Amino acid sequence: MKDKTRLVHPPHVLLPEGNRPLVAPIYQSVKFEHDTVADTLRSLRGEKDGFFYSRSANPTTRQLEQTLATLQGREDAIVCSSGVGAIAQTLIGLLKADDHVLCFVETYAPTRSLLRRTLQRYGVRHTMLSIEDDAGIERLLESTPTRLVIFESPTNPITRIADIGHITRQARAAGALTVLDNTLAGLHQHGDTDVDLFIHSLTKYASGHGDVMGGAVIGSAQQIRKLRPDFVLLGGVLDPHAAWLIQRGLKTYLMRYEAQSDAALHIAQYLEAHDRIARVHYPGLARHPRHELAASQMQHFGTIVSFDLRAGAAAGDRFADALKLFAIAASMGSPESLIIPPGLMGPHDLPAELGALAGIDPGTVRLSIGLEDPDDLVADIEQALAAI
Ligand SMILES: *Cc1c(COP(=O)(O)O)cnc(C)c1O
User: Fold this and answer.
1) Are residues 164 and 288 both part of a single domain?
2) Coil, strand, or helix at residue 277?
3) Structural contact between residues 303 and 261, judged by C-beta atoms closer than 8 angstroms
4) What is the pLDDT of residues 292-343, one digit of tens each?
5) Whose CA is nearest to atom 7 of ligand 1?
6) Which of 5, 45, 137, 312 is the most interior residue, by most CB within 10 Å?
7) How far apart are CA 385 and CA 383, in angstroms?
8) Could you tell me the residue range of the domain that residue 141 belongs to?
9) What is the CA(329)–ligand 1 centre distance, in A?
10) Are 268 and 284 in contact (CB under 8 A)?
11) In the listed set 250, 271, 297, which residue is the last one of a domain according to the structure?
12) Is the CB of residue 301 below 6 angstroms from any atom belonging to ligand 1?
């Protein structure tokens, strides 16, 4: 063999039986081979285990899918390149022209835009209500044939809580699927409900370090088997290296989520007692309008705390500028605490009457609590509130 050839075909280092790496390696390979054509064909027909092409399946992304499904209390999952990718590919996989979708004004803005802009072009209809409008949800599902309900709990930014049992009962009675974007609540929560499919942005708490993007849909083996061909065709695959980073992040997921959630409650309680603040939105507070419901559905109330400043929007922007430990940045679930000031918030994509239903005040500020010492975060908030 000449050098050129040898370099293209380096030796395979196989591990002896009974010897394995403690941390699974990154299968940074697009292609996988079988020894013979017959084995390749058997594998492609599903008669034999094996991998062929990484857009369809890869051992590193497969390991992540299995970890996520177990944590969410379901049978299987598909990962893809972002949370929005998971939402778009799931909706495209489940919907066809003339289907009707129930969604909510409090839902993540790109989800609303997917329905209002993209899927509308393909003839998918939708209705938008408020997530707290239990009677409206019941009326709509009884009167309008609906293919699926997509919702969130807690909602972003003002942490409204969906009555998940009510929604899944009404949806099941009406023959509609339920899709819960469970990103804010996290992978360990809401698994005991009757939700059909969970969607997560892995960019947030799963990876946990603000350095990698990913998304997932999680559900029964049957639901996931039906969705997978569309995910493979739409092509928004998660790179094995990103999957490996997310798998690594997940090792500390529960500890991070719990610590960040505990710190968020501590900060919410501090803010509640402050005279410059009209209202604090945090489901862990007894004064939250749906605290009892949240406590019956959740073990941890999450890491997002928002509040309405009495002095309004300009004071909110000054508050954000005065903070030293909180970065003015999008997203959540990072080790660093983050702030979204009023100037960067609001349901700007919605018509005014729907936007008003979302209940975001001109002085609403959103905090995402990180892994710093909570006492340092409180001290930083205190000096910034004094500065406005
Ligand atoms: C961030 C987020 C998404 C989108 O996730 P990306 O990974 O940024 O695409 C979807 N839903 C919710 C609730 C989110 O917070």
Assistant:
1) no
2) strand
3) yes
4) 999 999 999 999 999 999 999 999 999 999 999 999 999 999 999 999 998 8
5) 83
6) 137
7) 6
8) 55-250
9) 14
10) yes
11) 250
12) no
